[in-house]
Amino acid sequence: MRKLPLGIKIWLVFASLLLALSIFLVLILPSTLRSFFANQIYLTIEDSQNSILNGGLEGPFQKPNERDKEQQDSRTVRHIILDHKGKPTGPRNSFSQQFWERVQEQALSQKSETERYGMSIDDSSIQYVISKADAGPKSSYLFSYVWETFQQELVTELYRKLLYLILVVLLFSWLPSLWMVRYVSRPLGQMARQVKRIAERDWHDPVATSSRGDEIGQLADSIESMRQKLVLQDQAQQSFLQHISHELKTPIMVIRSYTNAIQEGIFPKGDVNGSILVIDQEAERLEHRVQNLLYLTKLDYLRAYAGPEQVTFDLADVIEETVERLRWKRPELSWHRELPSFVIEGYEEQWMIAMENLIDNQIRYAQSEVRVVLHEDEQGTMLRISNDGPSISEDMSAQLFQPFQKGKDGKFGLGLMIVKRTADLHRVVIGVENGPSGEGIAFTFRFN
To answer: Which of 31, 62, 89, 351 sits a CA distance of 20 to 30 A from 130?
Structure first.
């Protein structure tokens, strides 16, 4: 059934539900109808008896030439008076002696004033009521009956019409199922084609979303959101590749030009040592760029496929160690450190590299002081690393963590991107803001 078209599946569901309901009605309805009509017939007999009993029992209730039960009007209530011994006082119709003996036994043995009875005679059934009545010196009985022929005919007719109705409903159930197929499968088919185009990297046309607020509309909105993110990611990737090409091209071009010049006996820096020093510096720059690019790739891999490398370590120790190694780049700077023990679980090596990039950035722009504060507040733990250097503009702060975004004295434009990727990998919220006096820049890490 999994390989069937959606329309056939929906029709099968409709048909199965209708068939189950039909089988239930076929099994339950006949007995329910019989019980209902039988009760109504008894009520009709009792109402007719009450009319007779209230008017007295004088007068004949049966004519001698009454028709046989096969020719009687089955809707008519007929009455026969029974004497105090339970024997009929008038004509007995075509009822057998055995039937009257049974009626006599029931009349004499009943304890209540009125009792309901039923009996099958040959291929027919009869419903009757026996009521006690006072007529003369001795108590008598009123025997009232109706043949069930009308009831059976009515139940049979209703049953037949119900079967016809069920058959018609089953035949025409394809109409609502066809509407349901168009309502459900049409937008799904459109989205399937659009997703296939997106899979082929043809994601520049927007996904047609509808105003419907059901799950199909939500799915369309999710696909459109995915498409927009893929477009942005593709644009970022193209921009990233262009920046990489530009950043790698410059040192390679310098190395090749200096190498060719030395081979021709020309020394651009005056002598061979000076020229080789430039080549070595450019090679070092190239090495740093390649290392950062490889490290960013590693962070992306860890974020997508987090492995079992996470360990428990004290972040304060990592920061202290990093500060001690880098502070000698500018020994004139003063350091304010508040680093209580803070144990986290994650990738210790990644945090050490992130802190190296961030603290190196702080040292580069600080004028006289760098502050590193780790403290608790109502929202959790906050790490704040700041300096008293120049402030940052709003436009620059929005792009600060993008690849190859460099400040005035920046080097490669990848350090803060590595910091951001590390924070995202550990689900830590990172932010950047200017200092309270309008000077300096502060990076914050919020650990929840």
So the answer is: 31
Element (H, E) at 21: helix 6-55
Domain 6-59+71-171 class, CATH top level: alpha beta
Residue 426 CA to residue 435 CA, distance in Å, equals 26
Q: Output the CATH code of domain 215-304.
A: 1.10.287.130
Phi then psi dihedrals of residue 61, to 5 deg: -105, -10
Question: Has domain 311-447 been given CATH number 3.30.565.10?
Answer: yes
Of 89, 73, 97, whose CA–CA distance to 143 is shortest? Answer: 89
What does the alpha-carbon distance between residue 420 and residue 212 come to, in Å, rounded to a whole number?
Answer: 38
For 176-188, write each residue's pLDDT tens digit. Answer: 777 777 777 777 7
This prediction has a pTM of 0.44
Q: What is the rounded average pLDDT of the residues 416-429?
A: 84
pLDDT level of residue 338 (50, 70, 90 thresholds): very high
- Neighbour tally for 54: CB within 10 Å: 7
Q: What's the full length of the chain, in residues?
A: 448
Q: Where are the domains of the chain?
A: 6-59+71-171, 215-304, 311-447
Task: Compute the distance between CA of residue 224 and CA of residue 412 in angstroms, rounded to an integer.
Answer: 35
